[in-house]
Amino acid sequence: MEPLFRANCIASMKHKLFFVFLSILILTLSLGGIISYRLYARVSFTTTSSIPPDHDLWDILLKDFVKDGHVDYQRFLENENLLNDYLTLLQSHGPSADWRREDKLAYWINAYNAFTIKIILDHYPVNSIKDIGSKSQIPLVNSTWDIHFIEIGDKELSLNDIEHRILRKEFNEPNIHFAIVCASESCPILRSEAYSADNIDKQLDEQATDFINDKQKNQIAKNQIEISKIFSWFKGDFTKDRSLIDFLNKYSNTKINQDAKISYLDYDWSLNK
What we know:
Helix 4 (about 80-90) packs across helix 5 (about 100-120) and helix 5 runs antiparallel to helix 6. The protein has three domains: about 1-40; about 55-210, no CATH class; about 220-265, no CATH class. It has ten helices and seven strands. The strands form three sheets. The protein has a three-stranded mixed beta sheet with strand order 5-6-7. The protein has a two-stranded antiparallel ribbon with strand order 1-2. Strand 5 and strand 6 form a beta hairpin. The chain has helices at about 1-40, 55-65, 75-80, 80-90, 100-120, 160-170, 200-210, 230-235, 235-240, 245-250, and strands at about 65, 70, 150, 155, 220, 225, 260-265. By secondary structure, it is mostly helical.
């Protein structure tokens, strides 16, 4: 009976392993579908407003509560009614197809940054934006950036929706990565003014120049560079028609050799306060 018992055990183990493998495969495919959707599905709006809102109130808040990229969250919290007024303005003036590119860019970048402040305030005090939401976070599935707390037009959006399904999907503009701010020390600094349609391209160029030449974010030498993981995570956005070195050289004060050694710095997710 012992050989038969052993054979039955092996068969049972194989059966269990098959179902474990099948479960993992189904989970992987499901997560892949979710991630693909959240990266590539375009967001469209049924909009009643065709007039872009002004961002004057957001501009005042940024000038008062952001210094050199450091955010005074306590003062934002004490004046949260003003932030909520601005968010309400955004929500009631959803984007329209007839807006200019510049109006749309300014709208969505300001929206991303303002709603990032909002989600921090809703959970303040926190040490990191990653402390918000699920304890075991899967990027593009259940992270802080996947929480659907933003209502604009007829849609409920997450920060990832704004970044990946709108800004990255609709605009061929790699410099957005230096303008949208994830409330962390290694992020680009939050600008002490609102983005505006009239100045958006100048502002984005300034953000790129400041970020790339910031020695706390990137360490650049002629033959070796240690750069932000932003350039790894979104490399495709920076290299559509050039090399990564070519992109960096457009803004870097130090000209980098094409064969320079590239490595990436650790990312500091502590709050940018």
